[in-house]
Description:
Residues 28-41, 72-76, 81-88, 90-108, 156-172 and 230-237 have low confidence and may be disordered. The protein has ten helices and twelve strands. A hairpin with a 6-residue loop joins strand 6 and strand 7 (350-358). Helix 6 (129-153) crosses helix 7 (170-214). Among the domains are: 3-85 and 101-123, no CATH class; 283-423, Glucose Permease (Domain IIA) (Distorted Sandwich). It has helices at residues 3-13, 35-40, 47-63, 71-74, 113-118, 129-153, 170-214, 223-226, 267-275, 416-423; strands at residues 299-301, 304-305, 316-317, 320-322, 329-331, 336-343, 350-358, 361-370, 382-383, 388-391, 403-409, 412-414. By secondary structure, the chain is of the alpha+beta class.
Amino acid sequence: MNDETFEELARLLGTPAPRPMTDAEAPAAAPVASASHAVESGGPLTRRELRRRELEAAEAAARASIPVAPPIASALPAVPAVAAAPAPIGPPATSTPAAPAAAPAPDAPVLPADLAAIFPADPITSVPASELLAETRRSRSAAARGSARSRGRGSGRGRGSSRGRGGRGPTTRTGAVRTVSRGASARSEGRKLGARLLSAVAMLFVGALAVAMSLPANALVTAAGTGASADATVASGPSAAGAQDLVVAPTTTVETPTRDGWNALSYAQVLAEKYGSRDYTYAVSSGPIRWPFPYTATISDGYGPRVSPCAGCSSFHQGVDFTPGSGAAIYAIADGVVLSHVEDDWSYGNNVVIRHQIDGQTVDSLYAHMQPGTCPLQPGDPVSVGDFVGLVGETGEATGPHLHLEIHVEGVKVDPFAWLQAHVS
């Protein structure tokens, strides 16, 4: 709006035309909320900056006593002339005009008829900058309080409830963040306090448990609780009514109890007591059934259970061990036929089995642990009583040179010493 337009508007309103301001009276270049100024300043302005510059411009205009038109009025195009008879333009009349029904306020001038027809319900007013600032602050405070109340009412509805229903404003977000921060801080303080209380209760419980475990069971028991008197005395002697007296004769002697003796025996000693006392003496003869040696030989181990003498030896001895010495000649106990001849380095070692028919029974005699290569017999060879079988050795599982003799009657192993004593004539 140029100076001519201001003068014309002053004449229409009936107010003196404003005088031009000097450079000293002119305020600092007030920012104008326009797109052109934003471009000249180096970039577009935000709404908040535009609003702030409008307020600064309004305050500067109020200090200079210049009526400020609202932004909408400044953006209006020039009003063309109206076909109706315009109001006379001239100097203001000196005569006092007729008083209207309601005198307009000094800060609310009356629009001309042509402008009033365009803006009948929005007269041009000049609002002081102080009132604009106060109104802005009140609106911001009200918006913040409304945001807090909306967040309180909608705290259980999920995220975003603190914004309410009114859109996203910077004031609403700031209030929500501040309230959420205060709520989170309160919850954090509550958790810290609960943790401290829990630690204190746990320490008290541990201390009470330690004290309870260290006290004896009767530490808190009193005489009154047990029903006994602390100064009670036990009556004894003749003064006690109905008491019994035990009189012991001076000649009575008390016998001291005696303990029974005991002894521990190993399993080998048990077997020795059971079988070691057996008599292995025998007499040789020249009948159809004979002993394997033509002389009496010592017997080191008999038939039956025993302590295993070696790692591969059995704990139940199924034969008789003769110990005439290494290299002693062994002879057949009866007539028969060679059933088998095996030379091994384990078990029976070099051994031979001869089958006999005695008293209608099949009897097999086994000769084991002979020296290697000393037995000339082969399976199927006939054998007579007293024939040479081999030499005493220690092949196979043996602890020393000996003859291991077994007797099988109808396939059943029997005690060779008892069988020979019963059949040798």
